[in-house]
Amino acid sequence: MRWRKPHPRPLSCEERRAPSRTPPSFVGKGERASGFVLPPAPKMLLLMLCLACLLLMGCFSGKHSGNAVNAEIRFWNGFTGPDGATMEKIVKQFERETGIRVKMQIIPWGTYYDKLVLGLAYGGAPDVFICHANRIAEFARYGVFRPLDDLIDADKGFPVDDFLPNIWQAGKYEGQQVGLPLDCHPQGLYYNLKLFREAGIVDAQGNPKPPETWEEFLDAASRLTKDKDGDGRPDQWGFAFTWLRTNWITFISQHGGSILSPDLKRAALAEPPAVKATQQMCDIIYRYRVAPKPEGFDSWMGFRQGRVAMAIEGIYMLSSVEEQKGLEYAGAPVPSFGPKRAVWGGSHMLCMPKNLPPERAQLVWRFMRYLSEHSLDWAEGGQVPVRRSLLNQPRFRQMRVQYAFAKQLPYVVFEPASHKSTEIMPFYDAAIEAALLGIKTPQDALNEAARRIQQVLDRP
Do the beta carbons of residue 284 and residue 291 sit within 8 Å? Predict the structure, then answer.
């Protein structure tokens, strides 16, 4: 089994603000493509193999000290932004109510998974940790998770049916529940209220009206793209692509496309639905001219500064617009660009390490359940709860952007649940950029990516 160094997602706001990079070409393993290194990651491979051996030999170094009931719970996550302060409040509230101590360690996402593997392999492992939904298969393949099914079954009052089924399923691996969904962070449409009013894109009451269909989107984007100084180049764009990978997954999913086949054994991104969706994205830039090329232009900063009227981004970017003085904005579901309702999303999963002593697992489960039950508090930090009973509560309705994005939860699409997901990721990243920058046609770019991805999938 081979392991590739994880690319933690979602990125922090600082990472997300970095300008796009141009792929010179598709290149070989270990070389650069579009600013991404296709990593052989021998260190990570060695660590994961050592971890797998330790687990097989029963030598897992969890090092749990003290009485199982009274010992401190170690909780690792990567919540370095405002969400970290929100989580800290919830943790302290849990400590006050239960008398159970929790030591929360926040590790930047850029190094989080490396440190997690080291902790799991060589000691100092947390009792509970966050794993993104698209990391579940990679870690689960090495047997690092403690399945939660027995804890859930024993907890007769735990409402599994309260969770959105597609989000709950994302925490499963080979039929076992290994992750408890804490939230979902879907993309949505951010739009500038002031620019919409100035362009007359309003409803009967005079309120800015976000587009819901492809036709409405094109009309709005055209009216919102303006050359204010008459130099022949727009100073204000109707739309801009942000994180290309997730924008692209939303587009191809709405057209019925996918990165991999349902059995995860075949590259599917060069098939007609995905090619059509990628061409549609290119047309937004080159045919309709309502969005800039994703090169040397910080799209999200453009939205924050009022130079971009619409952008598709994740709920995790909410804090960055909240802190932008003078920006009038709102959120809405992503328009229908294709025949299907679909939008990219991610999820933070609460997971336990394998070989956690039974008594301690019960203690940790109590903490995990508490976090789930207080996911409305967590939503204050810029996330969306995934329990049906919370989604229509008045308190959540007041979180206007989160509430708007939550309407998409039933049709959230995750990245492929393959243990090779981060290994194939750089190939379709490079293909998307090559197509949107006009370096290759969508078909040629996706054909090359599919060929490279299939080579990875065909390896043992």
Answer: yes
Residue 38 pLDDT > 50: no
Answer whether residue 308 is part of any domain.
yes
Tell me the C-alpha distance between 262 and 329, whole Å. Answer: 38
Q: Are 401 and 199 in contact (CB under 8 A)?
A: no
Radius of gyration of the chain, Cα coordinates, nearest whole angstrom: 22
Query: Is the pLDDT reported for residue 87 higher than 90?
Result: yes
pTM listed for this prediction? 0.87
- What's residue 71's pLDDT? 77
**Is the residue at 37 inside a domain?**
no
Task: Decide: helix, strand or coil at residue 434.
Answer: helix
Domain that holds residue 153: 62-184+347-413
Complete DSSP assignment for 282-349: HHHHHTS--S--SSS--HHHHHHTTSBSEEEEEGGGHHHHHTSTT--EEEEPPPB-SSS--EEEE-EE
Do residue 101 and residue 200 come from a single domain?
no
The answer to whether residues 126 and 227 belong to one domain is no
pLDDT score at 47: 53
Cα separation, 272 vs 276, in Å, equals 6
Q: How far apart are the C-alpha atoms of 137 and 376, rounded to whole Å?
A: 28
* Number of separate domains in the chain: 2
**What pLDDT digit, counting tens, does each position of 370-401 carry?**
999 999 999 999 999 999 999 999 999 999 99
With beta carbons less than 8 A apart as the criterion, state whether 94 and 60 touch: no
